[in-house]
Amino acid sequence: MFYEPDKNNHGLRFNPFKSICVPRPIAWVSSLSAGGVPNLAPFSQFTNVSYDPPHVLFCPRADTDTARNIAETGEFVVNMATFAMREAVNATSAVVPPEIDEAALCGVTMVPSRLVRPQRVETAPTQLECRLHSVMLVPARLAGHGQAVIIGRVVGVHIRDDVLTPEGRIDIARIRPLARLGYLDYTSVESVLTMPPPDGPNAERSRRGLEGRPDMAVAAAAK
User: Fold this and answer.
1) In sequence order, what are the residues at sequence separation of 6 or more whose Cβ sits closer than 8 angstroms to the Cβ of residue 41?
2) Which residues of the chain have pLDDT under 70?
3) Which of 52, 104, 125, 198 has the fewest CB atoms in 10 Å of its CB?
């Protein structure tokens, strides 16, 4: 089949688009308003942008408390959402007034961050402390419904010791990160497949990129 999104002429009962860009990891973002009110909300338009230095990107609606908080304070934390925490993640997606602390409302325990003011979800296996790099607005068909593309530089990384393997790798299959599909559907990572890059003159460069190894030593040698 073929359809044009501008015409919405797919003829299906449910819009298929969000079931095509899948699975999408969930950024469980904690932020703080200029007045000091905490906010916690999940967003599934989320990915990393670069790794050296690390930056992440997520896209809330521009009129959300999260987007406003980050624009005002320039700081946020991305907490990893997991299968075990799925009910709490879903509960914090409820639309509530700006003065409501979603974490307190939903019984999620927060702990202080090291380098930014927003707190972290205590039980999240990883948390990324971020400072705002830039914001770009993507327009929507309806006025006021545009998306904010928020890019943050990761300035601090927390990893729970119990989710690290003896070899020093994050045990993704054990953590079971939560991810969004289309419709009202979710999934979680339950298996891991390892595939090294093809052999060749650029194999080491490819491996470095896939593993996310910083190029600091390479850059220092080039000076």
Assistant:
1) 28, 29, 60, 64, 65, 66, 92, 93, 102
2) 216-223
3) 198
Superfamily per CATH, domain 17-192: Electron Transport, Fmn-binding Protein; Chain A (2.30.110.10)
Of how many residues is the chain composed?
Answer: 223
With beta carbons less than 8 A apart as the criterion, state whether 44 and 61 touch. Answer: no
pLDDT of residue 146: 93
Q: Contact, 120 vs 76, CB < 8 A?
A: no
| Inter-residue contact 94 to 84 (CB < 8 Å) | no
What's at 56, amino acid-wise? Answer: V
Which tokens in the block code for residue 33? 């308003």
Q: What angle do CA 111, 114, 120 make, to 5 degrees?
A: 30
Q: What is the full DSSP assignment across 177-223?
A: BEEE-STT-EEE-------PPPPSTTHHHHHHHHHT---HHHHHHH-
